């Protein structure tokens, strides 16, 4: 199922950020994101960028399995093997960067934003 509302929301937000962006930021696939009063650049390219997008949109506020994250990435037009998603989540986002926690629910490992 395609969530038209989600795409419309993302498109409106992206267009708003593009209006504020410098041409060099747009050409590098970096979108300025407002954080309070300051604007920072977030790079949503590649698999890591796709996971960062899900984190920034609040998708991982509640625990999600690798399958759920993989399916959401596909909805957001990030097409990568499930094994790559799993490896990046467990190594980069959990162990190295410590952005996510891994919890076991009903014998399934799930990932959630570390608070």
Fold and architecture overview:
- The protein is α+β, with helices and mostly antiparallel strands and 115 residues long.
- It has a domain at 63-115: Arc Repressor Mutant, subunit A (Orthogonal Bundle).
- It is 50% helix and 23% strand.
- It contains five helices and five strands, in the order ααββαβααββ.
- The strands form two sheets. It has a three-stranded antiparallel beta sheet. Strands 1-2 form a two-stranded antiparallel ribbon.
- Helix 4 packs across helix 5 (82-96).
- The mean pLDDT is 82.
Please identify the structural class as seen in this structure.
alpha+beta
Q: Which CATH top level class of one domain fits?
A: Mainly Alpha
Morphology: globular
- Strand fraction band? 15-25%
Q: State the helix count.
A: 5
Main sheet properties: 3 strands, antiparallel
Any idea of the CATH topology of one domain? Answer: Arc Repressor Mutant, subunit A
Q: What is the count of β-strands?
A: 5
Beginning-to-end CA distance, first to last residue:
31 Å
Give, in spatial order, the strands making up the sheet with the most strands: 3-5-4
CATH architecture of one domain: Orthogonal Bundle
CATH H level, superfamily name of one domain: Winged helix-like DNA-binding domain superfamily/Winged helix DNA-binding domain
């Amino acid at each position: 199922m395609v969530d038209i509302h989600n795409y419309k929301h993302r498109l409106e937000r992206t267009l708003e950020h593009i209006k504020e962006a410098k041409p060099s930021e747009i050409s590098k696939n970096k979108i300025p994101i407002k954080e309070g009063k300051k604007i920072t650049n977030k790079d949503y390219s590649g698999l890591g960028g796709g996971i960062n997008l899900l984190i920034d949109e609040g998708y991982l506020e509640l625990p999600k399995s690798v399958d759920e994250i993989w399916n959401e990435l596909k909805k957001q037009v990030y097409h990568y093997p499930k094994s790559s998603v799993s490896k990046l989540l467990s190594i980069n986002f959990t162990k190295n960067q410590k952005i996510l926690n891994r919890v076991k629910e009903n014998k399934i490992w799930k990932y959630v934003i570390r608070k």
